C-alpha cells in the first residue's frame, strides 16, 4: 500500500509566491504615495503660512493697498517661496480684494489666498 505524499506541489508554491509578490508591490506603491502626499502637504502648508503672514502684515500695518501687483518672498521650513500680491477693486469702493499667489522656488503655483480689505 502506497502512502499519500504530503506537502505542496511546485505550482502551488509558485502561485503563492506570485500572490505575495503582487501584495508586496502594491504595499510599496501605497507607501510611496503616502510619502509623496505627506511631502506635498508640508509644502502647501508652508506656502499657506507665507500667504497668511503677508496678508496679516498688511492688516497689522494698516497700509492703504493700491490696486495692482507687487512681488514678495518668504522662507518657511527651510524652503523659499515667491509670491505676488494682486489688489483689485470691488463693487464697493471702500474695499479691495487682495490675492496672495504663492509659488515654490521653481515657480510652480502652490496656492492662492484671498481676502477683502478696506482700501
From TrEMBL:
Post-translational modification: Cleaved by prepilin peptidase.
Domain Type II secretion system protein GspI C-terminal: start-end pairs: 41-117
Topology of this chain in the membrane: Single-pass membrane protein
Keywords from the named record: Cell inner membrane, Cell membrane, Membrane, Methylation, Transmembrane, Transmembrane helix
Pfam family, one: N_methyl
Cell compartment(s), UniProt: Cell inner membrane
Principal cellular location given in the protein's record: membrane
Subunit structure: Type II secretion is composed of four main components: the outer membrane complex, the inner membrane complex, the cytoplasmic secretion ATPase and the periplasm-spanning pseudopilus.
Family classification: Belongs to the GSP I family.
Function: Component of the type II secretion system required for the energy-dependent secretion of extracellular factors such as proteases and toxins from the periplasm.
Protein name according to UniProt: Type II secretion system protein I
Gene name tied to this protein: gspI
Amino acid at each position: 500500500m502506497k502512502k499519500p505524499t504530503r506537502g505542496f506541489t511546485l505550482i502551488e508554491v509558485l502561485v503563492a509566491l506570485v500572490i505575495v509578490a503582487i501584495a508586496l508591490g502594491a504595499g510599496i506603491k501605497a507607501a510611496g504615495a503616502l510619502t509623496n502626499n505627506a511631502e506635498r502637504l508640508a509644502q502647501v502648508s508652508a506656502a499657506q503660512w507665507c500667504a497668511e503672514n503677508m496678508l496679516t502684515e498688511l492688516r497689522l500695518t494698516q497700509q492703504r493697498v493700491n490696486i495692482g501687483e507687487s512681488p514678495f518672498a518668504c522662507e518657511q521650513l527651510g524652503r523659499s517661496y515667491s509670491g505676488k500680491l494682486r489688489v483689485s477693486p470691488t463693487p464697493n469702493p471702500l474695499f479691495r480684494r487682495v490675492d496672495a499667489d504663492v509659488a515654490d522656488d521653481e515657480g510652480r503655483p502652490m496656492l492662492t489666498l484671498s481676502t477683502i480689505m478696506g482700501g
